[in-house]
Design goal:
alpha+beta, 3-stranded antiparallel beta sheet, 30% helix
């Protein structure tokens, strides 16, 4: 992940070197901790629309709010500051959401995290924050029974973010939710189960109209640069959409974009796909900053995963009704 942040920083640095004299960039990701085990696991996924607040100590020693940003479709957030302030003494934490959070994953916020300095050179600095967590009121029914909160928020950090304590009374404790757990028979037809099955579909399947309903997180009209970031924007421009990316062929870079987009869609559709959404974006950006040989190698790796080679997964699409 650090390599992804580093390559992203190079793009920001290149674009800013002739502009502002100095700039600092901070980035991170918010995950839904469905099992409330205090760490990112196979059951967790990135959360969009989550508000992240950063507080830093003021001249009087009291913590004050510096910035608040909202996560994008991939659960990522970014903050930019003029100059190169020292952020090592600051903290970031989930502070709310822009709307209803899936699976009630906005009930409580995980512990605050301190930024880590990745790079500081030429009046440019980049910080990364370890994954932030947002949790439901109780673990999901499909979580292992041993899953329990193992990393409660440290008491000293609670004072940095006053909003979370008032939110807790708004959510019922676990016992009132127990009546919803007994009807296990309702779980098989629900959407999460296909997501738990192993599935890998090639780009031809994703472009068929009868399977258009599987485009759930992103759509064919979503721009490539919105999903893959600044490095992809420099290579492919800001006008090409994911739907257009799926018909690329002949050129190594268009082939990489086609197979990378397909892998991203497969990662959203199946938790057992060899790449998760974050790693797909990371491999794409690493390939785009490398040689043509690396581009072909990454495209071939994505293609094998999309065809189920190595995982023995098949395409589990059924016609949309």
């Amino acid at each position: 992940m650090d390599s992804f942040f580093f390559t992203a920083f190079l793009v920001v640095a290149a674009s800013a070197i002739d502009g502002a004299r100095g700039a600092t960039v901070l980035s991170g990701t918010v995950f839904c901790d469905q099992c409330k085990d205090g760490q990112v696991s196979l059951f967790d996924y990135p959360l969009s629309g989550m508000k992240v607040t950063m507080v830093c100590p003021g001249s009087d020693g009291q913590f004050i709010t510096w910035r608040e940003e909202t996560t994008n479709w991939l659960g990522n957030y970014g903050m930019r500051f003029d100059g190169t302030p020292n952020l090592s003494g600051c903290y970031t934490q989930v502070s709310g959401s822009n709307g209803q959070v899936p699976n009630g994953c906005g009930a409580t916020a995980g512990p605050a995290k301190s930024p880590r300095l990745l790079f500081n050179m030429f009046d440019m600095a980049m910080y990364a924050v370890d994954p932030l967590l947002s949790q439901p009121a109780a673990p999901m029914p499909f979580c292992p029974r041993s899953a329990a909160p193992t990393l409660p928020p440290p008491p000293p950090q609670q004072s940095f973010f006053p909003p979370p304590p008032p939110q807790q009374p708004l959510f019922p404790p676990p016992p009132p939710q127990q009546p919803f757990l007994p009807p296990v028979s309702r779980l098989p037809p629900t959407p999460p189960l296909p997501f738990l099955e192993a599935s890998a579909c090639p780009h031809q399947k994703w472009m068929m109209p009868e399977y258009r309903c599987y485009w759930k997180v992103v759509g064919p009209d979503t721009k490539v640069w919105v999903v893959f970031g600044l490095i992809a924007a420099r290579k492919y421009g800001t006008d090409i959409s994911l739907g257009q990316a799926m018909i690329g062929r002949g050129d190594p870079y268009r082939t990489l974009l086609r197979e990378g987009t397909t892998s991203l869609l497969n990662s959203y559709n199946s938790i057992q796909f060899p790449f998760n959404s974050i790693s797909v974006v990371e491999h794409m950006n690493l390939a785009l900053t490398g040689s043509t040989r690396q581009v072909l190698h990454t495209a071939f790796t994505f293609m094998k995963a999309n065809l189920g080679i190595g995982s023995n997964a098949t395409c589990r699409f059924t016609s949309c009704k």
